[in-house]
Write a structure and sequence with these properties.
7-stranded mixed sheet, NAT_camello-type, DNA-binding transcription factor activity, about 25% strand, WH_DNA-bd_sf, about 50% helix, transferase, about 300 residues, HTH_MarR-typ, 3-stranded antiparallel sheet, alpha+beta, 10 helices
Amino acid sequence: MPINGADDQIAAVRAFNRFYTRKLGVLDQHLGKSPFSLSEARVLYELAHRDDLAAKEIGNELGLDPGYLSRIVQSFDEKGLITRTPLPADRRQYQLSLTAKGRQTFAKLNLGSQNEVAAMLARLSTGDATRLTQAMATIEAVLEQRQTAPASVVLRSHRVGDMGWVISKQAAAYAADYGWDISYEALVAEICAQFVKSYDAAREHCWIAELGGEPVGSIFLVKATDELAKLRLLQVEKKARGFGVGRALVEQCLQGARERGYKRMTLWTQSILVAARGIYKSAGFELVATKPHHSFGHDLVGETWERDL
């Protein structure tokens, strides 16, 4: 039997769950206006944010019935959203990865969800929105009881050999994650070559992020005009994601631009680069222009983001 007061607590939690699922519009098991169920969207999310997950791992973490998960995986495979590779240790189990089409699909789904939540928050006052998000953070912290060991991120200046590392890692990452062709590698090589040839230490810089003495990320500060700086080639290796490396690099680039006398910073990115866009937005950048284009073997939507320093 529950102890005194537990019945009321249980009822309160269940009532909140019913209210919140209705509020988010997922009571009918579909996420917003997308063709995906809530469970399908969660599987896409896990695959977009973690490397080469086994189907069994996803099922265990999300609490999905194996048969139901199998049907989701089969549907994703038929739609060309994922690749399936048998695990060497157990050929009955599969390692799952998103294809370029899968990542584009997730980016569209993620943007739709973000817009829906933004519309919900827009109806609230600033104070109420703050109270709401703080309450959510409290709920998450209490239920998760997470204990994460802080990682030591070191940002250093570029040195001989780093440009080759940047070119190789950028080209390989975007080919694997988004299916971009070798023309992107050529673009990165041109940017790095021009940076080295015309390097002005008083106005420009490159930072390399290290974890445990190993390079895991990079960012470039490049002169556009006397007052306008460019942020270029933000990159974080998959194994280093989740440690705040990307945010640390962007903050360092902003600080470096201020110290060098710039008044404003601009950057160019793509609409499908969800994680990077999130970092830019949290760092105070605003989307100021979009333009569809065909580059790197794909139809893309280029975005210009800017902020004052």
